[in-house]
Design a protein that fits this description.
CATH topology: Rossmann fold
Shape: globular
Radius of gyration: 18 Å
Structural class: alpha/beta
Oligomer: single chain
Strand order of the largest sheet: 3-2-1-4-5-7-6
Number of helices: 9
Helix content: 25-40%
Strand content: 15-25%
Number of strands: 7
Distance between the termini: 40 Å
Length: about 250
Amino acid sequence: MGRRSVRPAEQDRWVFNRLAADYRERPGYPAALADRLLELAGGVGSRVADLGAGTGHLAIPLARLGACVLAVEPALAMLEALEAQASRGQVVPVHAPAEQTGLPDASCEMVLIADALQWMDAERTGLEVRRILGRGGVLAVVEGRFAATPFLSALSALVAEANPKAQPSRPGPRAQLFACAGLRPPAGERFRQQERLGPRRLDSVLRSLSYVGPALSPAALASLLERARAMAEDHGGAVWDRELTLWWARSRPA
């Protein structure tokens, strides 16, 4: 993937630009998670920098709850997909990498990274978080892993068969991030993300995975999608089921 070696200006090299349309079809995060994030940020009117915001799966819900969300995303197609879904003025798009956001010093009550730390340089991102996070602000990191359901276990085996060299993205170096941000080790809270996917949406979600859509040839991808749909039917439907952990720590108040 080489994300860390690609500059935002080199948009033709950003694989996520090819994934944006399918990425929009991924299930949203649970409402309880968005509610908790807003509470930690300080409530309505809080400024939240969502680093690696993607197509807005958390940026848009947080904005609808009343946060002022700065959606920081280096892939233009992802940012454009986010803007197409958000009401005017709901979310402020920021075309920049997490390591160099360009946001003012101490300007945010929360910095959020959801399902994206593995694509970032943890040290440089941590230093940037330290710079833009205000006194008493919160760094929040959301990580997810698939539940060990019969369908998802079978699907994982199918993907591994199609592309043995591709591995699911692993969580990034969380401890390094918090340390470089000057924060104590984070507290963890658990959430669950579950949603049933129809055949068309299952196709989109699979194509959106970095180790599936961009990694397989067109023929191999078509075969995988056909077999995944059949597998879902055999299991009584495809359910996206993930265990989410919210890791957070607050900086010292002024």
